[in-house]
Amino acid sequence: MTTLFDSLSMGPYILPNRIIMAPMTRGRSDVGALPNELMAEYYASRADAGLLITEATAIHPLGYGWLGAPGIWNEDQTKKWKLVTDAVHEKGGKIFLQHELRSLQEKREEIR
Ligand SMILES: Cc1cc2nc3c(=O)[nH]c(=O)nc-3n(C[C@H](O)[C@H](O)[C@H](O)COP(=O)(O)O)c2cc1C
């Protein structure tokens, strides 16, 4: 019988177990939508899960939804995300970033 703790093949990835952390807004980013050490600690401490999905992350300033949310639309933010991904990878974890698109689409509608 398959259990939660059995590995899972997912496209090119082999997850060590079937525990997948849902994306959850934490609102802990620094000013400038910059990821930080606290976020690295938060995600790295959950790296035993088969896969982590990050909180919604804006890919454009127009898609920025709420205070404390991280972004990934510029070089500084991208570099700071490396803090998070390196910390997770050091513990053998896998992490996907959730792109925030919805509010961008909504704002585009408003602008039209
Ligand atoms: C505090 C909190 C923050 C959340 N943030 C996000 C988010 O950033 N992106 C997202 O897609 N879902 C978010 N969710 C929704 C959860 O991912 C969702 O509740 C989870 O997948 C469980 O699904 P269910 O509500 O259908 O059981 C959030 C939920 C909570 C409780």
TrEMBL record:
<dbReference type="Pfam" id="PF00724">
    <property type="entry name" value="Oxidored_FMN"/>
</dbReference>
<protein>
    <submittedName>
        <fullName>Alkene reductase</fullName>
    </submittedName>
</protein>
<feature type="domain" description="NADH:flavin oxidoreductase/NADH oxidase N-terminal">
    <location>
        <begin position="4"/>
        <end position="98"/>
    </location>
</feature>
<dbReference type="InterPro" id="IPR013785">
    <property type="entry name" value="Aldolase_TIM"/>
</dbReference>
<dbReference type="InterPro" id="IPR045247">
    <property type="entry name" value="Oye-like"/>
</dbReference>
<dbReference type="InterPro" id="IPR001155">
    <property type="entry name" value="OxRdtase_FMN_N"/>
</dbReference>
